[in-house]
Sequence to fold (75 residues):
Amino acid sequence: MWRKDAGELHLPEEDFWVFDSRVVAVLRFDDEDVLHDVEVITEPAEVLRYCQVRDAAVHGSVPYDAFAAQLGTTN
Fold:
C-alpha cells in the first residue's frame, strides 16, 4: 500500500507488528529510518486497537502481484 493510500484510510504512520493477536511491537525510527527502539504492548485494549488498524490496512490493500506490477517488478 502506498503511504498516500494509508493516509486516506486514516491509518497511523507508526510501524508495528502484531503477534498472535496478543502482543504488539511498535518500531521507533529516527528521521533517517534507523531503528532505535521497540515498544512491546500487551495491554488488551491497546492490542485490540492495533488489530483493528491491521484489519483496516488489509482491507484497503491490494494483492502483492498487483502492487509489484505498479512498481514494474515481477518478483
